[in-house]
Write a structure and sequence with these properties.
binds cobalt (II) ion; binds carboxymethyldethia coenzyme *A; MMCE/EMCE_epimerase; 2,3-Dihydroxybiphenyl 1,2-Dioxygenase, domain 1; metal-binding; VOC_core; alpha+beta; single chain; 8-stranded mixed sheet
Amino acid sequence: MLSRIDHIGIACHDLDATVEFYKKTYGFTDAHFEVNEEQGVRECMLKINTTGDGAASYIQLITPTRPDSTVAKWLEKNGEGVHHIAFGTDGTDVQAEADAIAAEGVRVLYDAPRRGSMGSRITFLHPKDCHGVLTELVQKAPEA
Ligand code: CMX
Ligand code: CO
C-alpha cells in the first residue's frame, strides 16, 4: 500500500544556497546530504516531520552533477521548481506496488528498483501517464 507522501523533489541550481533558504526561512534543520551518481544528482533531504509519529516526510533538494543528468535537462527547460512527488510504501515491496500500478496502464520507468536516498529502493512512473506529475515510489531501508 502507498500510505504517505515520502518527499517532494525540488530541482535547484545552487544546492547549498537553497538548503540555507529552507533552514533560515522555515527552520528545517535536519539535513542529510548525499550524491547519487546513478541518478546524476547531489541532494539534500530535509526532514520536515518532527511530530514523532514515525511517518517522516522530506523536502528533497536536487541539483545535477553532470550535464547529461535528467535533472540538468529539466532545469534547462523549466528553471528551478517542483520536479517530482514521491509516495512511500507502507513497508510493502516497491516492485510489487509498481507492478500493480503498471497493470493500470501506467509506464514504470525501471525494470527493477534502484537505489535512492538513505538506502531506500525507488522507481519512477512516467509523468505523461500521471497527469503531468513525475511520480516516484519509495521503500525505505529497514531500520538499522
Ligand atoms: N515532471 C513533469 N513532466 C516532465 C518531467 C517532470 N519532472 N520531466 C519531463 N517531463 C515531460 C516533459 O515536459 C516532456 O513533455 P512534452 O513532450 O509535452 O514536452 C516529456 O515529459 C518528455 O520529457 P523530456 O524533457 O524529453 O525528458 P525525457 O523523456 O528524456 O525524461 C523522464 C523524462 C521522466 C523519463 C526522466 O526525467 C526520468 O527518467 N526521470 C526519473 C529519474 C529522475 O528524475 N531522477 C532524479 C531524481 C532522483 C531522486 O528523486 O532521487
Ligand atoms: Co526523489
